[in-house]
Every structure is written in C-alpha cells, then in structure tokens.
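Design request, tokens follow.
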C-alpha cells in the first residue's frame, strides 16, 4: 500500500521532501488522538528482545529524526514499532537550518539531509511526554547540542536536556555525530568525549537516586565517516565510561555511499 499508493501520492502532490515529511507527521499526530491502545501491531514472543535492561516487543523501531518532538507516539505504537526514538532534541528550542534542507535522490531511494536539529526544545518535549499515556513500547530520546551553545559549554547543554527528560526516556542516545551542527563532530575526539560521557553518567546516577529509578542506558551515536583508528579510540572511551551501546550510524558526508 505504501509503495503503490501513499508514496506516489506524496511524491506527486508534495514536491518538497520536507513538506511531505511534515504532512505525514501531522496526519499521524491527528490519528494519535484516537483511542489506539487496542490497535497495536501483533505481539509475538519470539520477536521480543531484552537489550541493556530494556524490553523490546520486537527489534524493529523508528529511528530519531522522523518524529523529533514526539507528536505521534500512539500512531507509531499502533503501526507495530518495537520502539520509538524521538529527537534529536536540544536543550534550547531552535529552528534548524534554512530551507530547503531535505532533498530527494529518487534514483537512489535516498535523501540528502541538512536539517540542523530543528526541534521545540527539551522542556517542550518533556511537557508533551508528561501528558501522554503509556504506550507499551520503549521510548528512546536522542540528545544533541544546541547550535547557539559553544562547544566548550556542550556538556552543560547535554546534561540539562538529560535532567529535563530523564523520567520519560527508556534510554538516551547521545548524538555527537550530526554533520549539520557546526563543530559537533569534534565531540568524538577522545578527550572531549570522555569529559562529556563522564558528566552525563554523573547526571545519570544523580537522577537515578533522586527519582528512585534505575540508571538509564546511555548510547552513543557515531558518524559513518570515522577512520578505523578513530572509531577504535571512540569505542575504547565509550567502554571506559560505561556506555550501554553504540548507534550506527549518523548521516554520511560521502556522496558516493
């Protein structure tokens, strides 16, 4: 149905890729107002997985970027997603890069993404998640650095967002690899990454004690363009800092991929 009807309709009626994205999201947000609790996709115990202490009803979920502000979570659950990752969200609300910033490569079934972390901010997302009902699937939250925040102050930015959203995330993805926020990938450097992760784990332990909840799994989202040596070094830092997993990967800068 998607390939034979929905996709051709969106491509024909909405030439701009971001318009198609927004239209789809608005429609799903409207559907999310309906009582969808009994329409969740089929559950098969054979598909269930427990990873880093989180139980997933199935291993196929929605990655960050589609529903940055968490406006259509019940619809995603009803469609059968095994998890939904919202964001990337930043501490400060921000509009992202100037449009157009999303381009279709139809012959390659691909997109060029230059979005720039457009989102309503961590506090707005926390407010929306607080009003939502239980979905029965894990909710991951991808955290990024605000564009206006200097790289030297990035740690405080990430920690503030983690603090605001802590009670709502089943796990947190630390996005240090988007190519669309100036300087962000410098956080993959060994020293800077160790400093950032140590601070986030300290905040993780603090919030765990304050809220009487188990510490949340922290995952690091990496770039696909790292050299083998740089990737090995990054993984060593993540292991040293007790990171629960790696998300592979973010947007590539290599057009031939």
């Amino acid at each position: 149905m998607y390939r034979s009807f929905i996709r051709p309709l969106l491509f024909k009626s909405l030439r701009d890729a971001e318009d198609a994205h927004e239209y789809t999201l608005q429609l799903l947000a409207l559907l999310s107002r309906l009582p969808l609790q009994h329409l969740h996709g089929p559950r098969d115990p054979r598909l269930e997985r427990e990873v880093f202490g989180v139980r997933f009803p199935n291993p196929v979920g929605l990655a960050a970027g589609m529903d940055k502000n968490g406006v259509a979570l019940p619809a995603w659950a009803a469609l059968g997603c095994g998890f939904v990752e919202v964001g990337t969200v930043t501490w400060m609300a921000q509009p992202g890069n100037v449009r157009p910033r999303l381009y279709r490569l139809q012959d390659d079934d691909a997109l060029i993404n230059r979005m720039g972390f457009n989102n309503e901010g961590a506090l707005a997302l926390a407010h929306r998640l607080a009003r939502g009902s239980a979905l029965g699937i894990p909710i991951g939250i991808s955290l990024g650095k605000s564009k206006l925040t200097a790289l030297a102050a990035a740690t405080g930015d990430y920690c503030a967002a983690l603090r605001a959203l802590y009670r709502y995330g089943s796990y947190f993805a630390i996005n240090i690899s988007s190519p669309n926020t100036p300087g962000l990938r410098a956080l993959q450097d060994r020293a800077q990454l160790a400093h950032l992760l140590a601070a986030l784990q300290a905040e993780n332990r603090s919030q765990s004690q304050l809220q009487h909840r188990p510490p949340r799994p922290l995952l690091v989202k990496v770039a696909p363009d790292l050299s083998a040596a740089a990737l090995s070094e990054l993984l060593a830092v993540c292991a040293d800092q007790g990171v629960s997993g790696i998300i592979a990967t973010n947007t590539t800068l290599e057009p031939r991929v």
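Comment from the thread starter after seeing the answer: thanks! The CA atoms of residues 11 and 20 lie 8 Å apart.
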